[in-house]
Design a protein that fits this description.
The chain is mostly beta strands. Helix content is 10%, strand content 37%. GO terms for molecular function: iron ion binding; oxidoreductase activity.
């Protein structure tokens, strides 16, 4: 019965059970306030430009709050011709690795998925100023503010 009610109302079953049927406030979808969600079960990466309730593999995903880069998670960005060459000196084992690197500008997001046992480096097209993100499988989301 909940599934049918969910379809009729166009509302997530979880929201029905919680009694939360209020829509988000309209904020224009500002990409500078991007949110990342990562499923620890399947590795799915989901982003949103405003508050969201995201589920994957039957579990509610937690919003990943970015931490500014530090010496253990330093995001190095070099400009080579018309590309950014992004590297992170980080372990890339099956249990501890960088899952993705993202570049977020005012109007777009580029996400490059990485896998264990490959180098934590990517090349992406150079775009207008934006911020860089990297997600560590053990330590969460890291951010480099591009000045």
């Amino acid at each position: 019965m909940l599934r049918e009610l969910s379809n009729v109302l166009g509302v997530n079953i979880e929201n029905i059970l919680l009694g939360e049927l209020d829509p988000n406030d309209t904020d224009g979808g500002n990409m500078r306030r991007i949110n990342f969600y990562v499923c620890h079960n399947c590795g799915n990466i989901i982003n949103s430009s405003s508050e969201a309730q995201i589920s994957c593999c039957g579990r509610k995903l937690e919003l990943q709050i970015p931490t500014l880069e530090n010496v253990d998670h330093e995001i190095t960005v070099n400009e080579i011709e018309n590309e950014y060459y992004i590297t992170i000196q980080h372990e890339m084992s099956k249990t501890h690795y960088i899952s993705f690197i993202a570049h977020v500008t005012l109007d777009r997001v580029i996400i490059v998925k990485l896998y264990p046992e490959q180098d934590a480096e990517v090349r992406i097209p150079k775009m207008v100023r934006g911020d860089f993100y990297a997600y560590c499988s053990q330590h969460g989301l890291w951010m480099k503010v591009n000045k």
